[in-house]
Every structure is written in structure tokens, then in C-alpha cells.
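Appendix C reproduces, verbatim, an entry submitted by the partner laboratory led by Prof. M.T., so that reviewers can inspect both the input and the predicted structure.
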Amino acid sequence: MKASVTKGLGQGFVIEEVELAAPIGHEVRVQVRASGLCHSDLSVATFIGGEFPVVLGHEVAGVVTATGPDVTQVKTGDHVVGSLIQYCGSCVNCLSGRTHICLHPEYTLRAPEEAPRLSWNGAPVAQGMGLGGFAQETLVHENQLAVIPDEMPWAPAALIGCGVLTGAGAVLNSANVQHGETVVVMGAGGVGMNAVSGARLAGAGKIIVTDIEDGKLARARAFGATHVVNSRETDPVEAVRDITGGGAHHVFDFVGARPVTAQGLRMLGSGGGLYLIGVAGNDAGVEVSTMAALGGSQKVQGVYMGSSHLKRDIPFYASMYLQGRMNLDDLVSKEIGLADIEEGYEALKDGTTARVVITDLS
């Protein structure tokens, strides 16, 4: 099969013929129909590094073509979405429903002594985040897959497994936003727009989006923001406190730059929570005054993958989309071929581009 292989840091994405093993145990073979481009994969390929060569890509949607003998949750012909959440299902966190922080994610991978799932020229190829979606086919543990309705379009479906889970999940799961509460979304990128969608589903009273680009803020309005603030032109803290009448219930930081995070903390009202999702650099963080936090009964919480349970949440978001209650179509700014990944990432540098999805796997 064809796959886009990253052979080392800064060596880009190169189409190669890669061999995919037959499924064993709980593994599921999936014919990829769509694969989203996420900045996390680009970071691995350009500066974070890891095991090379590797097939990256962790926003995957496709059709099940074969299953291992122990698979019970999916069947051949099912339409599925993959997620980078890897969980064992039996540790204390999984048993309490917190599969996003499983203690043994390695359970979803083959053991070192077993033959690799992927190989190229007779040598093993790593599989990014247990998925390896920049390929015509992939082999995935069933715990990383959720079944979706057959009528769900492929391109928006692929985005559910990461960006939608993260953005909407931060609002619905991590913060548990209640009807009528005020929400601030800092950063109007694709993941931030999913937070706006989540806030609408939760019935938030006011949804305020801050960013430095008017084009992104216009998009936020289209997704359902009730107020937008250009933080390059206006003090966002003063604006939020004025709009909310004293501070927000929930502030979601999708930027992750220290000055922006500090602003988010000052936007909080009494009993409010600041949720940290974006990371702009190694120095990302915020200084918290214990006295102020105590006096305001405020909290700061890190959020990973929207505190999601993929088996529950992916079908839910697909259902909301099909009912017309969640906008996923406008997240797909561009569709490309498997050989065009580098051009796709270049397109993402344009602030008006929300997400790019591979839909031509020929």
C-alpha cells in the first residue's frame, strides 16, 4: 500500500510502498477514506522527533476491512473514526471512565517481540500515536476506534477524533458548562471553533471569542460566538469583564502563550475556571496567586483530549452533526491528496484556513 513516510527530523513526508501486516488479537484493518492534518504531527516531523521512520497522521476515518480474532466492538464494513486516545480498559482510570488518562496505553500496541504492523524495505516502520493515518490503510487496536453512522461524510468525520474531541470536550466534559453560563474561548483556530460548538450544545448564555485576526473572529461569529474581541486592538480582559458584568464562568486557552494565559486568569469571575489546552512553547504557563484563587474560589485545570471517552463522544458528535446541531463542514477548508501533505501544512499557515483533510488516497 502507499503511505507517507517521515524518515527523520526535517525530512518531510515521502510517498513509499509500505507493507501492512494482517490483524492479530484486537487489531482492526481500516481502509482510510480521510485523514486530517494536525499540527501535532508536523511538530513530530520537524522538531519534537521520536521513532523514525514513521507514518504519522492521527485524525482518521475509514471502513473496516478485516478484524483480528479477539475483536468484539467493530465488524467488517463498519465506518469508524480513530483517535489518538490509547486505553487498556482495565486500569483504575479506565474503570472510572477516565480513559483519556489510561495508565497503560501501550496495551493498544504490539509487543516488542511481535512482528511490526508496518514495514518498509523489510525494516519496521513506527506508527504515529498507534494510528498511522497518512496511508491508504492502517491497522489499529479496536479501543482506538469508534463506529459512526454510514451517512456521515468522511472529511468532517476524520476531524472528530482529535480537534472536535479536544475543543468540544473541554467545554462539555472538562468544564461541564451549564445552561446560561458565560464562556470565553481564547484563540479562534479550528479547535477553538469546536469549543464554540460545544458551548452552543451546552446552552452557554454568552460565548466570547478573542483573537488577533479579524478573519478568524468573523469565522467565530459564523460558528455561534455571541461576542468577539480583537485582542490586538482592545484590552481583552476589560472587554470580557464588561460583557460578562464581572468575569466569566469558564475561560478556555487554546493559545498557550504566557501573556495570553495570564489574561485568561484575569478574565475569571468568582468561582470561575481557566482551562489550559494550547501550548505555544516550552515556557507556556501561568503564575497563580493563592490568595486570589482562594478569595475567588477559582481553579486552573489542564485539559488533555477534552477529557473524552472516544467510544461515547465520537458517535455523539457525529449524531449532533447529522442533526444539524454541530458545524463541522466549515472546519474543512481544503481537501488534498496523500502526496500533498507538505503543501497542506503550508496552507495551514494562513489564518483563514481552519483544517486541511486528505481525501484522495489514490
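The chain has two domains: 2-148+328-360, 167-305. Additional entries are available on request from the coordinating office.
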